[in-house]
């Protein structure tokens, strides 16, 4: 028997939102512990939570603390995640370890989707998702995020995938697994730092009401699994494509030469890109997460209207 209540721990704010039937937006924590440096990581987390509150929903940042899946974190817990070098990056395979060993765990997109679904939250906002790495035909490096999207019913609002990945193969993988890729405000699938990847999304749906109707229809049909709602970085904060391409190539070569493997690959590339752009990539990263929070908040509110119908 699953005793989920043994594992889930809701914050007071999230508990109150559940009782009142308010829209709730899940947020991941690997972006805090492994995706950005301190103190910008904690500032970003706080500001994103506030954008969600200002939009009329309640934020639920998810992390593993003291043997519990914490859904909604206190300011002190956000600070802890942002300052603990030993916080573990937790994906699907790591959840039983970090919970049973009572370690501090920051959840990836995959693990956050699992925890959000357990907590009854259908909308999750992040920056970028993992995908098929370049050279995956020999390294087999395909993020567990993609397999999670194939099976766990949570909508993920993101700014697409970074060009550190093979974007074309990532989209092929998602197609094979029946994961729909929606784009907001444009036909193209965005590439995180830039608005266009050169690939099209499957469906363009500009309004939260249309996105919610799409997602609700998928799940009503019994088609389990996630939906990607890809939202391009605001034009004013996008990075020049040539610059990010050159830096990405350099970071990838360094990872290769340094023998960086497994779960270290993505954090290594993120931090090298930040260094090589003198921090400008970090400003873009923060801007796009905030933009995603606005889209995700509207979507979470629209989802409630659809489900209540
Ligand atoms: N991509 C980003 N920023 C991030 C991540 C990915 O642009 O912070 C994080 C997310 O938590 C994502 C994880 O789920 O990295 C994917 O890691 P991997 O490639 O090892 O599956
Ligand atoms: Mn990987």
UniProtKB/TrEMBL annotation:
InterPro entries: Indigdn_synthA-like, PsuG
This protein's encoding gene: psuG
Cofactor(s) of this protein: Mn(2+)
Function noted in UniProt: Catalyzes the reversible cleavage of pseudouridine 5'-phosphate (PsiMP) to ribose 5-phosphate and uracil. Functions biologically in the cleavage direction, as part of a pseudouridine degradation pathway.
Full protein name: Pseudouridine-5'-phosphate glycosidase
EC number: 4.2.1.70
GO cellular component, one term: cytoplasm
HAMAP family from the UniProt entry: PsiMP_glycosidase
UniProt binding sites for Mn(2+): 141
Superkingdom of origin organism: Bacteria
UniProt KW Metal-binding keyword: yes
